[in-house]
Amino acid sequence: MGCCRVLLCIIFPPLAVLDKGCGSIVIVTLLTCCGWVPGVIGALVINNKKEE
């Protein structure tokens, strides 16, 4: 995960997970609506998952 992706996770979490699928976008958007910090943490976790 690059520096640009980390900054995007911090600034606008739902935009950072656009390429991860619809479910990820919904989860991160709901977390961001509940609070900014949970949205950022969710986006960072989803972006750090290894692709198989």
The percentage helix is over 70%
N-to-C order of helices and strands: HHHH
Shape, per Cα inertia axes: globular
Low-confidence stretches at least 5 residues in length (pLDDT < 50)? none
Oligomeric state of the chains?
Answer: single chain
Report how far the terminal alpha carbons are from each other: 15 Å
What count of helical segments does DSSP give?
Answer: 4
Q: What fraction of the residues are assigned to beta strands by DSSP?
A: under 5%
Rg on CA atoms, Å: 10 Å
Tally the beta strands. Answer: 0
What's the overall average pLDDT, rounded? 91
* Biggest sheet character: none
Query: Helix/strand-derived class?
Result: mainly alpha
Key terms:
single chain, 52 residues, globular
Structure report:
- The structure is a single chain.
- With 52 residues, the chain is mostly helical.
- 75% of the residues lie in helices and 0% in strands.
Write the layout of secondary structure elements.
Layout: H1 3-11, H2 13-16, H3 22-34, H4 36-48
In short:
With 52 residues, the protein is an all-alpha fold. Helices cover 75% and strands 0% of the residues.
